TrEMBL record:
InterPro entries for the chain: Glyas_Bleomycin-R_OHBP_Dase, PhnB-like
Protein name (database record): VOC family protein
Gene3D superfamilies named in the record: 2,3-Dihydroxybiphenyl 1,2-Dioxygenase, domain 1
Domain PhnB-like: start-end pairs: 2-137
Pfam families: 3-dmu-9_3-mt
C-alpha cells in the first residue's frame, strides 16, 4: 500500500499538469479526460467539461502525484474546490541541489514562505505556496532527522 498526494482543481488540472511536469522533471504523464466515456443523456457534459481531466498521474524521481478536475456538477455534492492549505506536499531526502532546482521552478508565480536555507535539522529546508495554491515543504534530511529521535 502507498499513500500519495492527490490534487483536485476547478478546471485547471491540465495547466497544473504542464506546470508540474516541467518543475518536477516528470518522467511519465498519464491522463484521462471526462469525454473519454460515453455521455449520460440525463446529465450531458459541456464541451469544456468533456475536456477536463478526470484522472491523471505523474511520476518523478520515484514518486507519484495524482491530479484531477472536479466538474461543477460534482461540486454540488463534494463542495466547492478552493485554494487552501489542507494539502501539503513534502519533498524529503533530496540532495540540496535538487531541492534548489525544484524550489526555484515551483516558486515561479507563487509565494515563498521560507526560502531554502540550512537549518539545525536540515542542510536544505524551505516552504512555498505555488501559483495554484498548493503548499510545498522541502527537507533534505527529513528521514535522518526523524531517525535521530528515540520514541
Amino acid at each position: 500500500m502507498k499513500a500519495i498526494a492527490y490534487l483536485q482543481f476547478d478546471g485547471k488540472a491540465e495547466e497544473a499538469l504542464t506546470y508540474y511536469e516541467k518543475a518536477l522533471q516528470v518522467t511519465s504523464v498519464k491522463k484521462v479526460r471526462f469525454g473519454a466515456f460515453g455521455q449520460d443523456p440525463n446529465t450531458p457534459l459541456t464541451e469544456e467539461e468533456q475536456n477536463m481531466i478526470m484522472e491523471s498521474r505523474i511520476e518523478f524521481s520515484g514518486n507519484i502525484l495524482m491530479l484531477s478536475d472536479v466538474l461543477p456538477s460534482m461540486q454540488a455534492v463534494t463542495g466547492e474546490v478552493t485554494k487552501g492549505n489542507t494539502v501539503l506536499i513534502s519533498i524529503i531526502d533530496a540532495e540540496p541541489e535538487m531541492n534548489k532546482q525544484i524550489f526555484e521552478k515551483l516558486s515561479e508565480g507563487g509565494t515563498v514562505i521560507m526560502p531554502l536555507s540550512s537549518t539545525p535539522w536540515s542542510a536544505s529546508f524551505g516552504m512555498l505556496v505555488d501559483k495554484f495554491g498548493v503548499m510545498w515543504k522541502f527537507n533534505s534530511e527529513a528521514s535522518k532527522f526523524l531517525d535521530s529521535f528515540v520514541n
